[in-house]
Automatic annotation (TrEMBL):
Official protein name in the record: Shikimate dehydrogenase (NADP(+))
Keywords: Amino-acid biosynthesis, Aromatic amino acid biosynthesis, NADP, Oxidoreductase
EC number: 1.1.1.25
A biological-process GO annotation: chorismate biosynthetic process
GO molecular function, one term: NADP binding
Residues noted as binding NADP(+) in the record, renumbered to the chain: 85, 132-136, 155-160, 218, 241
Length: 279
């Protein structure tokens, strides 16, 4: 890494943020492409009450790009100068690009949500259980209904599930009816349940998982969440959260730098870090 006064800053913001692997992934990509003197990727803890000040700081500090994670994906939209059409339809921004002081919001979560699923199954007419109704769930809801999936959204607060179902299509259910997931083809956890250090928590009882399911957990720390461990034990096919992180990050890489992302280098950087952490 060759940082100088000319190096452009990119970063991920959230609360909490200590678990984020985005800096590892992006900086490995910069080094591989040979632009690690031009770009550096950092992480910053920003609470909701500070988001307006932070966005002003993007312009003041000439920060090139920002990745937004929980809890900022919807709140940050009101501060953008322009918003990509897909992000408008989803109603969430996870990527900000600063082009000479003009901030444009994008949603690369859509790519991260759908690409890993499409690698292993067709989505048309699939019955999908989406657990959660926050910012990342919106990308899944939009993408899955666009692909012709039959979507059921489960959330602790039924009103939030109903809001997504009304906007994107599908049914809304409370957690009291999770028993219904037995009849689904795909189960997606789009909540923070199971995030390190609460690695023995799961959004779904193990008894509801079968070997006919595809189970996708957006959480990537730990790599094998309790939900995924349970799913493997029941014989289900699984998708790790780093696949979503990677695919949305690849799209961000292009937006921030203009270069194509080195996918395998970035994936290996993530896996190497997670392997070291578990030893």
């Amino acid at each position: 890494m060759n940082i100088s006064a000319k190096t452009k800053i990119c970063m991920v913001i959230g609360d909490p943020i200590e678990h984020s692997l985005s800096p590892i992934m992006h900086n490995a990509g910069y080094e591989k492409v040979g632009i690690d003197s031009e770009f550096v990727f950092l992480a910053c803890n920003v609470i909701v009450d500070q988001i307006a000040d932070f966005v002003a700081g993007i312009k003041a500090m000439k920060i090139r790009g920002v990745s937004c994670t929980l809890p900022h994906k919807m709140e940050v939209m009101k501060y953008m100068d322009d918003i990509d059409e897909i992000a408008k339809k989803i109603g969430a921004v996870n990527t900000i690009v600063n082009d000479r002081g003009v901030l444009k919001g994008y949603n690369t979560d859509l790519i991260g949500a759908i690409a890993p699923l499409q690698k292993i199954t067709l989505l048309e007419n699939k019955k999908v259980a989406l657990i959660g109704a926050g910012g990342v769930a919106r990308a899944f809801a939009y993408g899955l209904t666009q692909k012709g999936s039959n979507l059921t959204i489960y959330n602790r607060t039924i009103e939030k599930a109903q809001e997504l179902a009304t906007k994107f299509g599908g049914d809304a259910r409370s957690f009291d009816t999770l028993e219904d997931v037995k009849n689904m083809d795909i189960i997606i956890n789009a909540t923070s349940v199971g995030l390190d250090p609460n690695y023995n928590e799961s959004s779904l009882p193990k008894k509801l998982i079968t070997d006919k399911h595809i189970v996708f957990d957006v959480i990537y720390v730990p790599y094998d969440t309790k939900l995924l461990r349970d799913a493997k034990q029941k014989g289900a096919r699984i998708i790790h959260g780093i696949e979503m992180l990677l695919q949305q990050g690849i799209a961000q890489f292009k937006l921030y730098t203009g270069y194509d992302a080195p996918e395998e280098t970035m994936r290996n950087a993530l896996l190497d870090h997670l392997n070291r952490k578990t030893k």
